[in-house]
């Protein structure tokens, strides 16, 4: 018997609007939101401050940014490239955080809402 001949699995239970609202008010959903916020807000603040410092240095500290570090490479270029590095590092940290902290909790909530197996 091929996969085409096999009956399709039953679709997951579709929760009602009331069930979604009830889940939003549940302690497990509130914990999920709190964990997300504890990561997102400080990381966003860090990056915005770091970016603002870079922009302000570029606008008002020309001599500092023009310091030659190696050959024609100056401090402004290095700090600008570090903006990209910071973005990739923050992205990697978020992915690791989401895989460890958020995804298992979200999966448990989804399974509860759809009537599937709990983790």
Question: Can you tell me about this structure?
Answer:
By secondary structure, the protein is mainly alpha-helical. It has one domain (28-114). The protein is 72% helix and 4% strand. The protein has four helices and two strands; from the N terminus they run αααββα. It has helices at 17-24, 27-60, 62-65, 75-114, and strands at 68-70, 73-74. It has a two-stranded antiparallel ribbon. Helix 2 (27-60) packs antiparallel against helix 4. The longest helix is centred in the C-terminal third of the chain and has 40 residues, at 75-114. It is elongated. The protein starts with 16 loop residues before the first helix and ends in a 5-residue tail after the last helix. Keywords: Membrane, Transmembrane, Transmembrane helix. This is Clumping factor B. The chain crosses the membrane at residues 39-61, 73-95. Pfam families: DUF485.
Provide tags for this entry.
membrane; 119 residues; transmembrane helix; 4 helices; transmembrane; 4% strand; DUF485; Clumping factor B; 72% helix; mainly alpha; elongated
């Amino acid at each position: 018997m091929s996969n085409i001949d096999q009956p399709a699995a039953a679709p997951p239970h579709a929760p009602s609007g009331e069930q979604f609202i009830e889940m939003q008010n549940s302690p497990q959903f509130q914990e999920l939101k709190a964990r997300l916020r504890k990561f997102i807000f400080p990381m966003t603040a860090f990056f915005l401050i770091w970016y603002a410092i870079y922009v302000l240095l570029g606008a008002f500290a020309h001599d500092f940014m023009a310091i030659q570090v190696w050959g024609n490479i100056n401090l402004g270029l290095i700090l600008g490239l570090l903006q990209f590095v910071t973005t990739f590092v923050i992205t990697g940290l978020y992915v690791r955080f989401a895989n460890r902290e958020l995804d298992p909790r979200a999966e448990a909530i989804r399974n509860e809402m759809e009537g599937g197996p709990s983790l």
